[in-house]
Amino acid sequence: MPKNVDVLLIALSSPIQIGIYENQKLIEKLQSSEKSSDVLPLLYKDILERYNVQKLFYANGPGSFMAIKVAYIFLKSISIIKKIPLFATDAFYFNKNQPIKAIGKLCFVKIASEIKTQKLETVPESSFELPVELDYSEFTTNTTPLYMIGAVG
Length: 153
Prior knowledge:
Blueprint: E1 4-10, E2 16-22, E3 25-32, H1 36-50, E4 52-59, H2 65-82, E5 86-89, E6 100-103, E7 106-111, E8 114-119
Parallel strand pairs: 1-4, 4-5
Antiparallel strand pairs: 1-2, 2-3, 6-7, 7-8
């Protein structure tokens, strides 16, 4: 009998990271530096064969426009076809609320609960980590991507 698990995807930058969670605790990590459009179907085929997936989670931005779009369409399709609920949260949950590079010296920052762009002299390297324990209260059923494309000044 396959284990009941939740699956979390962080596809904001390379490498793509996937966490498998049992009772909200991380039990397996997968990662790939391949293009998300190529590798996600292969990784999720394996996951869906090995586990009984209860919930899908993902980081809905800000980050790479195409990576977010591919992740959203892919997971939303699985959610509909397999009738598995989909949840999302912003990328700041996975990087300890550090600035996220947008373009040039422009970065996304989260102040209180609002995401804005700010020009920074030193642009930090964005690094995202799978949480050891999944906090459901950080996620929402509003899974629309946070593309955050605005005027660049």
